[in-house]
Amino acid sequence: PIPLILDCDPGHDDVFAIWLAAGDPAIDLRAITTVGGNGRLSHTTYNARVVTELAGITGVPISPGAESPLVRLLTPAESIHGDNALGGPRLPVPAREADPRTAIELIRDTLDASAEPVTIVATGPLTNIAMFVRLHPDRLSRIRQVVWMGGSTGRGNITPYAEFNSWTDPEAAAIVLGSGLPFTMIGLNVTHQVLATREVVAGIGAIGNRTAAFGVELLHFFNATYETDQGMPEGPLHDPVAVALVARPGLVTTVRARLDIELHGTETAGATSVDLLGKLGREPNADVATGIDVEAFWKLLEKAIRALA
Ligand code: BDR
Ligand code: CA
């Protein structure tokens, strides 16, 4: 199995990323780190503890990272994820504590303990990963690749051109991209293809375990807020797509392209510029997702949830 660190800000769709990473036999989930994003760090960390314990995931340390973006102020995505970043279900009080190490320390120790390079999947703002890059440049060779849910080849969701994770901490995204680490971007152009339709929600409900029942409650809330906030009655399950790309190469198709992050735009800060036509004449620096086998994705996710508690 592929050793993996999941850096996330749960968040409804982050929860499914956690469950996919823990439930899929192709992945060896070694650590979870949290970041301020969809909610304040205290909420995203608490939520990670809740949903791992609920799903019976043991032996995976969870460490809190950055409270806020490198330069900008955090604006949690309350209109989508609610006041606590995980609106909808009643959250059971988790018995297990977070790991005493910081996210940066946990990433460092996880890399050091691994015989082979470790993949980092990031499903929130890239603040923690950027800090790691800056603090531990000597350890970057121990990272196989960074796979990030963020950005878009086209429209945005938090502004007309910027996607939320990219808009929240564009400076961090630019640092990670500039580090030379192999980088894959999975943006809204692909994640908006995996919608929590009535059939999808029913399929997850039919799994019949406690994790699935909690997941259905999450999706009901998520679909309702997506309808009011984004005019999409079926919410897109962005984050698990990044895990699926690692678990099943080929399920998500990518192209090599030049990717740049807009840091200074008056209307476009956080926009991802993806040069699909090669017009800029700059060296390609990223794999950018362009397509997904939607059926195979839902099958993979259902199978993983079935393997949990
Ligand atoms: C991204 O922003 C968050 O709201 C989601 O969890 C996802 O990571 C989608 O733009
Ligand atoms: Ca997220």
Automatic annotation (TrEMBL):
What is any one of the record's Gene Ontology cellular component terms? cytosol
Keywords carried by this UniProt record: Glycosidase, Hydrolase
| Residues of the signal peptide | none
Which CDD domains does the record cross-reference, listed alphabetically?
nuc_hydro_IU_UC_XIUA
Q: Name one GO biological process term.
A: purine nucleoside catabolic process
Could you confirm whether the keyword Hydrolase appears in this record? yes
Matching InterPro entries: Inosine/uridine_hydrolase_dom, IUNH, Ribo_hydro-like
> Does the keyword section mention DNA repair?
no
Q: Which GO terms describe its molecular function?
A: purine nucleosidase activity
Report domain Inosine/uridine-preferring nucleoside hydrolase positions.
Answer: 4-299
Matches recorded under Gene3D superfamilies: Ribonucleoside hydrolase-like
Q: What name does the UniProt record give this protein?
A: Nucleoside hydrolase
Biological source species: Nonomuraea terrae
Taxonomy of the source species: Bacteria, Bacillati, Actinomycetota, Actinomycetes, Streptosporangiales
